[in-house]
Amino acid sequence: MKSSYSKxxxxxxxxxxxxxxxxxxxxxxxxxxWEGRGDKFVVDRASRYxxxxxxxxxxxxxxxxxxxxxxERAFSSxxxxxxxxxxxxxxxxxxxxxxxxxxxxxxxKFPKLRKLTINTTGLTPQRAIxxxxxxxxxxxxxxVIFSTRVSVDGVGDMHGEVRNVRKAFEKAGKTIAAMxxxxxxxxxxxxxSSTIFSKNLEDAD
Length: 205
Prior knowledge:
By secondary structure, this protein is an alpha/beta fold.
């Protein structure tokens, strides 16, 4: 393959030549890796497959979300009678419109529940903030300790690169600010969580 050239803009951006995009299988949203080798950098695609690609390869049929009625039947089992700490995570909880109702079921159906935890990316503050606020209020009324963490995997643009979401740092920041403000009214545990990859390792300092 012959050499290809790109011109750097004043904003530090470049255009990837069409031949390189075809060779690496790049499309909008693809992540490009710059690997240092001595005084040079080798550029390639960070991953050939997205998490959606992998999921489709593993599961022929997409999993169906359980209805609130199905969840209530499951939580009615005596299996949950001794549960003291429960966590709602795995993917993004706030994508479910009935997340608050699920939390209410957990409090109602787990007689010994002392602590409820929700982990969120906070990338949809317009959904996350009102939902988390309702859960905080509910836990306060029911005397259940509430804990929540917002995922931040880097500062500024780095967080967006890791999450592959535009303005991810700003979006998560809105959720964080709202939770900090809510702590002035209600007592609950709040923190930040991070996942360290080779990409954001230097930001971990």
